[in-house]
């Protein structure tokens, strides 16, 4: 039983970070109906930038704030240079552009920092906290707490703030949003900046929890795809539920099935879940059902 609970706790921790990265997918999809396949590279780049700033003897919190500022600028720059000229083009063309962006960002990171794993300085206290019968790393608890606060803050932002409501209006119809005086270009820029920021936070937390950063962090972008499909592409609540569900599924698969099959089940399980979800409920648990008659 202790082993099962430990796997569930680890799954909740990883799943909460999945949920945060999934929020980046949701933000962009809600405003522009585009699935951004460069989300994992945003995460990896954020972790490397924070590590690079800390290497100059800057304290962690200063490095984290500079990384978030960098992410805002990165989101604005990409939207202005790469995405804005694509307004009005077919969605598949924009999605292919995000695939190209992911390749470019990965090449830039490898060109600057190389491909070796770089150790991430310890940020959280190393003493574990005992929750019942088993110990839990303080880094895990800080990660879950930070992600929970951010997800609630973004949920309130989308529901009650003027920019959040404008983003929802843009997602509903760009023509209607324009007729109401909403700048679609500004909404796109805001959504890409938010996506870059939440991914950077996820990258920093993963770097701190794992104790190192490398190119494999970009794979988290692909792992989060089953999360957003399960929860629904346009649902913040779905990102939370989907992230935690996939995180727990991944850890239980790794704990119980990897020893039986010789490994690898943990990596495959989210994508098996993705196929099953698409077959049973293609719009996810909380996604809006859109029916198009042709």
UniProtKB/TrEMBL annotation:
Keywords noted in UniProt: Amino-acid transport, Cell membrane, Membrane, Transmembrane, Transmembrane helix, Transport
Annotated GO biological process: amino acid transport
GO molecular function terms attached to this record: transmembrane transporter activity
Places the protein is found: Cell membrane
Highest taxon, organism lineage: Bacteria
GO cellular component terms given for this protein: plasma membrane
Keyword Membrane: yes
Similarity field: Belongs to the binding-protein-dependent transport system permease family. LivHM subfamily.
PANTHER family for this protein: ABC TRANSPORTER PERMEASE PROTEIN, BRANCHED-CHAIN AMINO ACID TRANSPORT SYSTEM PERMEASE PROTEIN LIVH
Protein name: Branched-chain amino acid ABC transporter permease
Native source organism of the sequence: Anaeromyxobacter diazotrophicus
């Amino acid at each position: 039983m202790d082993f099962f609970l430990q796997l569930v706790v680890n799954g909740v921790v990883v799943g909460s970070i999945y949920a945060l990265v999934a929020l980046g997918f949701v933000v962009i999809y809600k405003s522009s109906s585009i699935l951004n396949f460069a989300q994992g590279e945003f995460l990896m780049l954020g972790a490397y930038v924070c590590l690079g700033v800390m290497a100059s003897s800057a304290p962690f919190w200063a490095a984290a704030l500079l990384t978030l500022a960098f992410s805002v600028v990165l989101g604005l720059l990409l939207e202005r240079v790469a995405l804005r000229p694509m307004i009005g083009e077919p969605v598949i063309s924009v999605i292919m552009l995000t695939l190209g962006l992911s390749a470019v960002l990965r090449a830039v990171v490898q060109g600057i920092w190389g491909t070796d794993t770089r150790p991430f300085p310890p940020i959280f206290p190393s003493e574990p906290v005992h929750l019942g019968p088993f110990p839990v790393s303080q880094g895990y608890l800080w990660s879950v707490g930070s992600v929970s606060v951010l997800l609630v803050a973004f949920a309130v932002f989308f529901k009650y703030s003027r920019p959040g409501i404008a983003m929802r209006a843009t997602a509903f119809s760009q023509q209607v949003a324009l007729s109401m005086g909403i700048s679609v270009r500004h909404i796109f820029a805001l959504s890409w900046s938010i996506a870059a920021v939440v991914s950077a936070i996820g990258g920093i937390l993963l770097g701190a929890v794992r104790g190192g950063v490398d190119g494999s962090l970009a794979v988290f972008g692909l792992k989060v795809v089953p999360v957003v499909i399960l929860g629904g592409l346009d649902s913040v609540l779905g990102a939370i539920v989907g992230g935690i569900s996939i995180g727990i599924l991944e850890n239980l698969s790794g704990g119980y099935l990897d020893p039986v099959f010789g490994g690898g089940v943990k990596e495959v399980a989210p994508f098996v879940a993705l196929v099953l979800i698409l077959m049973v409920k293609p719009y996810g648990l909380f996604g809006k059902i859109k029916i198009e008659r042709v």
